[in-house]
Design brief:
The chain is an alpha/beta fold. It contains 15 helices and 15 strands. The strands form 3 sheets. It has a 7-stranded mixed sheet, sandwiched between helices. The protein has a 4-stranded mixed sheet with strand order 1-2-3-13. A hairpin with a 2-residue loop joins strand 11 and strand 12. Helix 6 crosses helix 11. It is globular, with a radius of gyration of 22 Å. The N and C termini lie far apart (59 Å). 48% of the residues are buried. The model has no long low-confidence stretch (mean pLDDT 95). Bound molecules: 4'-deoxy-4'-aminopyridoxal-5'-phosphate. 4'-deoxy-4'-aminopyridoxal-5'-phosphate (PMP) binds next to helix 6.
Length: 433
């Protein structure tokens, strides 16, 4: 070991260790946004850093913290399971997995009966696409432009952003891209593929694509088209699921039942990583004939499943989907009012429930806005496939006064951004004289 390249971890700041041993580019990006200290504690909608600063978490882990940080009921369930048996022997059944599967069967669309558990959204997407191939015997997958399904090879093949795809090509073959929100483009793609497509994978509302809400009736049309073409409909509700959009699942807005549903993020209650894909009896059939075709060492562990069971109980008991719907619509219209005063900066404010996006006219405007909000103690971030869109995805149980605080923070941040830009434009004019 070359001792000169090492340094005492006791003396190094987290930022320095990130630069040397995690990722220097990431460290610089976080510092640029004003996040140079590490997070140390969280509770409800708040996060504290090592400098003692308190932040309102209005990003909510982009869909992880629907129940806030460390919801007491979920934490208690996890502690009890930790004391009893956190990980599975893998050779015996575990009650928590059974309970979670049963609860999911109760709250997902009626036709979804069977569930497989894993640890992240991308893994759940991988599994769903494999099962779609297995169930149909076909290979092709249709996905949407700007859609996001994860960054492992299979999911990346269905993720619609060149920047993330190109460095890793060739990806999986027989993946076909169509515009999001355009049912006739899907119909044409199904027809031209001539019976070769196993699945169409789509988010009911695109999250990383920039909180893009499709035209009304899109999902219903998609259901009709896929059914006719014998193509399985895979709904990725990793970000929209568990109350976020004002329904327990976003597909309920159009009463659409998929063949496969993908869940993650909030499923672990904001306490333990957990993801899942569920399917109909028919889709599951081949997997039941050979149950070891798709497996996972940590998937379905009792610790994560205890968090999942408790998360669903909290979602239903605290009626959080309804709360997201009610609070969300008021919040969205107030936000539109405020942003309406900045037409030169903002193209659109959109969303459903508490999944909200502010679409800036320029990526730089979005970055300035984020930095300004962070400085004021409010955490938000841009969407991965649409960096000019800032998304707001607060915990669904965020107290009402916090929404007021955030609205006034947004208003101040926008006026600062407008000021910076007008100073800059003034300086540019001066420079051109
Ligand atoms: N699907 C959707 C809709 C997502 O938003 C994400 C993550 N943003 C994923 C899949 C991938 O999830 P993970 O990062 O847990 O792999």
């Amino acid at each position: 070991m070359d001792s000169t390249s090492k340094f005492s971890q006791d003396q190094a700041t987290t930022f320095e260790i990130y630069q040397r041993h995690v990722n220097s580019g990431l460290a610089r990006l976080l510092a640029f946004m004003g996040l140079d200290a590490e997070e140390v504690r969280a509770e409800g909608v708040y996060v504290w850093d090592s400098k003692g600063r308190k932040f309102i978490d209005f990003l909510g882990g982009y869909g992880v913290f629907n129940f806030g940080h460390r919801h007491p009921r979920i934490v208690q369930a996890v502690i009890e399971q930790l004391d009893a048996m956190p990980l599975s022997s893998k050779i015996m059944m575990n009650r928590k997995q059974a309970e979670l599967a049963q609860k999911l069967a109760e709250i997902t669309p009626k036709s979804i009966e069977k569930f497989f558990f894993c640890n992240s959204g991308t893994e759940a997407v991988e599994g769903a696409l494999k099962i779609a191939r297995l169930a149909t015997g076909r290979k092709g997958v249709i996905y949407t432009e700007e859609g996001f399904h994860g960054k492992t090879a299979g999911s990346l093949s269905a993720t619609g952003r060149k920047r993330y795809r190109e460095p890793f090509e060739p990806l999986l073959t027989n993946f076909l891209e169509v515009p999001f929100g355009d049912a006739s483009a899907l119909e044409q793609a199904c027809e031209s593929a001539n019976g070769e497509i196993c699945a169409f994978i789509v988010e009911p509302i695109q999250g990383e694509g920039g909180i893009r809400v499709p035209p009304e009736g899109y999902l219903k049309d998609v259901r009709e088209i896929t059914r006719k073409a014998g193509v399985l409909l895979v709904l990725d509700e990793v970000q929209t699921g568990l109350g976020r959009t004002g329904k327990v699942f976003a597909c309920e807005h159009e009463a659409v039942a998929p063949d496969l549903i993908v869940l993650g993020k909030a499923l672990g209650g904001g306490v333990v990583p957990l993801a899942s894909f569920g399917g109909t009896e028919q889709v599951w059939q081949k997997l039941e004939e050979d149950p070891l075709l798709h497996t996972s060492t940590f998937g379905g562990n009792p610790l994560a499943c205890s968090a999942g069971v408790s998360a669903i109980e909290v979602l239903l008991k605290e009626k959080l989907a309804k709360r997201a719907e009610e609070i969300g619509s008021g919040f969205l219209s107030r936000l539109r009012e405020i942003c309406g005063g900045y037409r030169e900066l903002i193209r659109e404010v959109r969303g459903k429930g508490l999944m909200v996006g502010i679409d800036f006219a320029d990526r730089d405007f979005a970055e300035l806005f984020i930095a300004s909000l962070i400085k004021a103690g409010i955490l938000v971030a841009f969407a991965l496939n649409a960096p000019q869109v800032v998304r707001l995805e607060p915990p669904l149980n965020t107290p009402e006064p916090v929404f007021e605080e955030v609205l006034s923070g947004v208003s101040q941040a926008l006026s600062q951004v407008a000021q910076v830009i007008s100073n800059y434009q003034g300086a540019e004019k001066y420079a051109n004289l």
